Amino acid sequence: MELKRYKEAVTSYNRTLKINPNDSDAWRGHGDAQAKLKRDTKAVNSYSQALKINPNDSDAWSSYGFSLYILGRYEEAVNSYDRALEIKPNDDEVWYNIARCYALQGNLEQATENLQRAIELNPQRRRAMAENDLDVVRIRYNERFQKLIQGINKEN
User: Which of 75, 79, 49, 40 is nearest to 62 (CA)?
Assistant: First the structure.
């Protein structure tokens, strides 16, 4: 994985999982390699296996959610991200990805609320991302979104 040789990584993880099919880290790594190869359905299956073994792995929940998001399964992705936040509540990336899912579903209120939380946790990075992210384009002209981006949101 570190060398970005993802096909070889998949092969390695397959060998590891043949020896120990209950290795949740290997399943997560297998999912990560599959995701890098744009094999998102396979990635979802690998993350699912990892989470059956270790349901307290916030990174696996987050990665699982991201693969579901890529597949356009936004509701499922949000559920997965919610599980990640139960374990690691201050993960700005997860909050941001939830906002993206809601924006793509046209749920502007939820998108903006989750974006606000992401920005609170990591203002510079999340504002910059939101300004250029096509997934949040639906809320771009929302007044509350504009305030968040400008950093002058005075709401609760």
Answer: 79
User: Tens digit of pLDDT for each residue in 79-88?
Assistant: 999 999 999 9
Tokens of residue 14, six digits: 């397959």
The DSSP secondary-structure symbol of 123 reads H
Q: What is the CATH number of the domain that holds 126?
A: 1.25.40
- For the chain, which ranges sit under pLDDT 50? 152-156
Pick from 29, 48, 40: nearest CA to 67:
40
Report if residue 81 sits inside a domain: no
Q: Is residue 123 part of a domain?
A: yes
Q: Are residues 42 and 3 in the same domain?
A: yes
User: How many Cβ atoms are within 10 Å of 90's Cβ, its own excluded?
Assistant: 11
What is the span of the domain harbouring residue 8?
1-71
Hey, CA dihedral for 43, 49, 52, 58, is it positive or negative?
A: negative
Distance separating alpha carbons of residues 149 and 156, to the nearest angstrom: 16
